[in-house]
Amino acid sequence: MNEAAESPRQFTTPHQAPTAWPLTTGHQHEVANTLSRTPCPSNDGLDPSVVMDQSSVISNSVPLEFAYVVYDSTSIMSYFAALLTFWPFVIGVGLLVAFFSTGELWICVFGSGQLFNELVNHILKHHFQDARPPGSAKTDFGFPSSHSQWCGYSAVFLLITLAHIPWRRLTWVHRLGAVLVVALCVATPLSRLALGVHSETQVYGGVAIGAVMALIWFRFASLRVCRLALELLACFPGLSWTVGPIVG
């Protein structure tokens, strides 16, 4: 009995944990006060303000709609259709490289018309607010298709320009490049149908609007006041105006 009085903790088995000492009311209040004064780490020790900032960034994250594409990984045709999504970017980069390497102002005419064409596309999309086909991975408005309108403008403006240049003045590089550009401008709108991100009306409407924009912009660039302005710009070092007079 003396041994039991000396040690209230007893072990029934080697694996059993010892019985805790009973806490008095005073001890309970002391432990509670100690725990209340101890800072409790939140989110694995991260600063709550940092966690909130990260959460806001995640909640505000959206895909870049212009390049966002989902394709069937089991289909080679779907893969190439997805690659054609970036064709308008290639055209834009190609125009920049061509301008900075040659200084030809007609390239600026081409590019500025393309930017205006893109602005018109943005306005029309928000005017019609036409939804994309059911199941599309993209959620923005679908009519007119920006890819199709971009390609429609590029192909028609290029063809009009080449039609005004004597065939003998074009090298085989120019001819092959023109055929390749036009072919890809035809394939890209079709790829939007294959990927299911646009309806036929949205695609064909985009091509038609882009073609009309090319005709309007070419006519605008052919105005005498525009040509005089471009001729004055050609006086600056590094700029040239060689294609414009031929086309006019």
From TrEMBL:
The keyword Cell division does not apply. It comes from the Eukaryota. GO terms for molecular function: sphingosine-1-phosphate phosphatase activity. Pfam families: PAP2 (PF01569). The chain crosses the membrane at residues 79-100, 147-165, 172-191, 203-221, 228-247. Keywords: Membrane, Transmembrane, Transmembrane helix. This is PAP2 superfamily. The lineage of its organism: Eukaryota, Metamonada, Carpediemonas-like organisms, Carpediemonas.
